[in-house]
Design brief:
Elements lengths: L1 H17 L9 H19 L8 H5 L3 E26 L10 E25 L2 H8 L2 E3 L6 E3 L8 H5 L5 E7 L2 E4 L6 E4 L1 H8 L6 H6 L8 H13 L2
Parallel strand pairs: 4-5
Antiparallel strand pairs: 1-2, 2-5, 2-7, 3-7, 5-6
Helix pairs in contact: 2-6, 2-8
């Protein structure tokens, strides 16, 4: 029985690591639902007084990615897979329309079981955003990544001098905390992005710059309004 359970867990991990891009099968309804969940994650993230990102860090963010429902599974060898959105700060200080992304990664160590977490990534540099827009971005390789600091009482001066380019947070059992996602790969989901906007051939830079998108879906507008309330 024990050997059977180990085989099942290992099979699940391999499936997670080999899953194709979600956009290949997701329809517009799935993208809309995902953006609604991302909006709720952001709202809860900033409303937890003692375990939230310092306001100054959010105000100086160049991009923010929200990946709800990341599945972590493993027994000895582990893996993680998630699907969400990323928005970037435009030159006028407002946020761009969202682009869909997938998060995939693996880990090794003594671990067992399956867990679902929500993750938020705060990008501090425009260089990191430019690398992400090319289609594929590895946390820890393409940019220095660290567990995000928590606590609203951290001074703005301290936040600005933080050295990492990307700070990551996760929520499990209702509480947010800094977590390292080093080694995870963040990749643009072009198919899901096309589905969401009802267009074809969109690039990340098309969406970030507002090209070709005349009327973004209402859920995108709601997400941006929610995010803007806490990042200005």
């Amino acid at each position: 029985m024990r050997h059977l359970m180990m085989k099942i867990l290992l099979s699940g991990v391999m499936l997670l690591l080999l899953l194709p891009t979600v956009g290949a099968w997701a329809g517009n309804g799935k993208e809309v639902a995902k953006v609604e969940i991302c909006t709720d994650v952001i709202r809860q993230f900033v409303q937890i007084p003692d375990n939230a990102a310092p306001p100054a860090l959010l105000r100086n963010a160049q991009a923010i990615a929200v990946i709800p429902g990341i599945i972590k599974a493993g027994f000895i060898a582990g893996g993680r897979y998630g699907w969400g959105i990323v928005v970037v700060r435009k030159d006028d200080g407002n946020w761009s329309n969202p682009v869909f992304v997938t998060l995939m990664g693996g880990s090794f160590g003594f671990q067992a079981g399956v867990q679902s977490i929500d993750a938020i990534m705060v990008f501090k540099s425009k260089q990191s955003v430019e690398r992400l827009a090319r289609g594929k971005f590895t946390l820890g390789a393409d940019a220095a990544v660290a567990a995000g600091p928590v606590g609203r009482d951290m001074s703005a001066a301290t936040d600005i001098t933080l050295k990492a380019e990307v700070y990551t947070y996760s929520r499990s059992r209702g509480l947010f905390a800094g977590v390292s996602l080093a080694g995870s790969v963040l990749q643009i989901d072009y198919a899901a992005t096309d589905n969401f906007y009802g267009l074809s051939g969109l690039t990340a830079n098309d969406v970030f710059a507002g090209r070709r998108i005349q009327d973004p879906p209402p859920v995108a507008v709601n997400f941006l309004e929610t995010l803007s309330r806490y990042t200005k």
